[in-house]
Amino acid sequence: MRLVLASTSRFRREILSRLGLPFEAIAPDCDETPLPGETAVATACRLARQKAESLRAACPDALIIGSDQVALLDGRQLGKPGTVAHAVDMLKQTRGRALTFHTALSLINTASGRVQEQVDITTVRMRDASDAQIAAYLAREPEAVHCAGGCMSEALGGALIERIESTDPNALVGLPLFALVTLLKNEGVEVL
Q1: Fewest beta carbons less than 10 Å away: which of 111, 137, 152, 171?
Q2: pLDDT digits (tens, 9 = 90+) for 31-85
Q3: In the chain, what is the straight-line distance between the N-terminal and C-terminal CA atoms, in Å?
Q4: How far is it, in rounded angstroms, from Cα 14 to Cα 17?
Q5: Of 29, 31, 61, 68, catalytic
């Protein structure tokens, strides 16, 4: 079966390519706005599923992978800052504190209609960075404005992070690879 990643993220493409399976990456059509009163887990799951579902008609006889991540601080969802000014505010709020990242994975078999889902929870303890350090980070890592929480752990953002607690380090980057291997196996796709 054709394997499709419903994402424009180069980081998700890089993670998936580690499996050595041929795949296509196609931009999903999905409004990523959280719904009022929606929990972080519910938002991440809904968006991962919607991303995959948005490609269902265009990709018959395919396994479509959708993934989304929501950062949570004190019960409040932190999205993608979008601008440097918002990223500065977000990183100031999170310095010296713990954030919880909910990374949802949805795998849709368009031939059978089967939908499988998993959520990875990662806790990130941020360093107590100064205003100057936050500004220097964003000047050197401008892509961070497109990441939940405003920090990219896989790059220079590691300098802002004190500790990460996770069962899958790939999940924080955007794609729970360990869970994906299991979901693919359930669909008859052996990685090894």
Answers
A1: 111
A2: 888 889 999 999 999 999 999 999 999 999 999 999 999 999 999 998 889 999 9
A3: 16
A4: 5
A5: 68
Question: Domain map of the chain by residue range?
Answer: 2-186
Is domain 2-186 in CATH 3.90.950.10, yes or no?
A: yes
C-alpha–C-alpha distance, residues 104 and 174, integer Å: 9
184, 20 Cβ separation under 8 angstroms: no
Catalytic residue flag (residue 68)? yes
* DSSP string over 120-183: EEEEEEEP---HHHHHHHHHH-GGGGGSGGG--TTTGGGGGEEEEE-S-HHHHHT--HHHHHHH
Q: Give residue 185's pLDDT.
A: 97
